[in-house]
Amino acid sequence: MTSAVRIGFDNEKYLKEQTSAILERVNRFNDKLYIEFGGKILYDYHAARVLPGFDPNVKMRLLQLLRDKIDVILCIHAGDIERKKVRADFGITYDVDVLKTIDDFREWGIDITAVVITRYHNQAPARAFKNKLELRGIKVVLHYPTKGYPTDIDLIVSDKGYGANEYIQTTKPIVIVTGPGPGSGKLATCLCNLYHEYKRGVKAGYAKFETFPIWDLPINHKVNIAYEAATVDLKDEVLIDSYHLKAYNKKVVNYNRDIEAFHLLKRIIEKITGGESMYQSPTDMGVNRLSSGIINDSVISEASHKEIIRRYFRCAVEYVMGLAEKDSLEHIKMIMQKAGAREEDLKVVLPARNAAREAKSSGKGNNGVFCGSAIELPDGTIITGKNSPLLHASSSLILNATKHLAGLPDSMYLLPESLISSVTYLKKTILNGKMVSLDVDETLIVLGISALSNPAAKMALESLKHLSGCEVHLTHIPTPGDEAGLRKLNVNLTCDPEFSSKSLFIYG
Fold first, then answer.
1. Among 483, 475, 488, 229, CA closest to 353
2. Rounded to whole angstroms, how far apart are CA atoms 447 and 463?
3. Are residues 323 and 460 in the same domain?
4. In terms of domains, do 339 and 353 share one?
5. Region at 218 (left for phi over 0; alpha for psi -120 to 50; beta for the rest)
6. pTM for this predicted structure
7. Per residue in 250-262, pLDDT tens?
8. Could you tell me the strand order of the sheet in which 140-142 lies?
């Protein structure tokens, strides 16, 4: 049932090139380098989607290779703790993501030197988070808003500015500074410690570990447009690096925030070091050898095209849910136009919508709501599903897909009626639920139980692993149980910005 996956990226080549570039950079700074690590170190699924073949954890593999040479500092903005900001790909808040990151790093054999709570001004949730970490033996450092920032360079680079924040003691030549999401305070933490290093006579340096945009690909390459789509809430724009063009007469790309901030950042670094910066452009600051791993440009262009559409659907959904502004939606529409992308370019979109129409015309669905779903399997086969009083459309889809993969008849019932009845009785009668049909999470559990006594269900269960990386489209916004189950299956999910219930509060 599987077909050969088209690969566009060579991890080993990238790993070699990026590691070498980091070691070369640290040698330029007397063996003390602070590296601001933007993007995701672990579980970089965006990179994996736009660069087929990219290992989502290849950056952690790199750090593991350098384990004897690195300290790691985690930053989190106190305001993000207070606002309970959520990491969308995992559905967890930023403070929980810090805890997860610490655990993940430990599993890779790397300890966290310290957690820095940035822009702290005694917020109660931030205090509670600090206590939680310290009770678990994690060193916590508080950094306060920098006085004079961003205009008063003399005040910023003084004992009342960067110097007012605690120096974070490190012992290794490379200090990785990372944190959840943009605005976590990574740059400020690097510069604070850089200030303290120079006061101690250590001529340390600063650099950025970059992933996207890819500086030596064209400005309108699909992978760079996909970066714009992924950061539509930040209004990031890929531009020609004017500083680099002026210094070297060479066209490279960077994003607007780095270009806009470069003049100020260069002045701050020169004030700290007391000499002229070796960096003539924001691109100079970056360490990015991602393009060295690209082995098939057409493959990554096609994958990036799909990612742009996924990001469009996500933004449209976030808008109707009140999580995104209208200007973000208008911006992502412009990005779609720039990329020449259409909704239906994802092969699962139209079949899902057709399935919903078929459900309506045949009088199926549930309580007057008609939902459709579709999945593209590894061999290119499109499977659809519809909602019913017993199953959500995505639950029906998963069962239909596993039957196809396992070579089972489409008419076969994998879930015993008694089990479904028992679960629906629990939801309706015992838990007083209104939505009693099974979501994906519940369907997977029932399938797992059925597999104990039903060989066909066991075959279907075993085929679930083949769904990883498949495209899925729903004509409705998934319920929490659907979204959680589909996330565990690691599918690429998109959905129309339509609600699956007339209820305003969706809880299951």
1. 475
2. 12
3. no
4. no
5. beta
6. 0.93
7. 999 999 999 999 9
8. 140-142, 114-118, 70-77, 174-178, 33-37, 205-209, 286-287
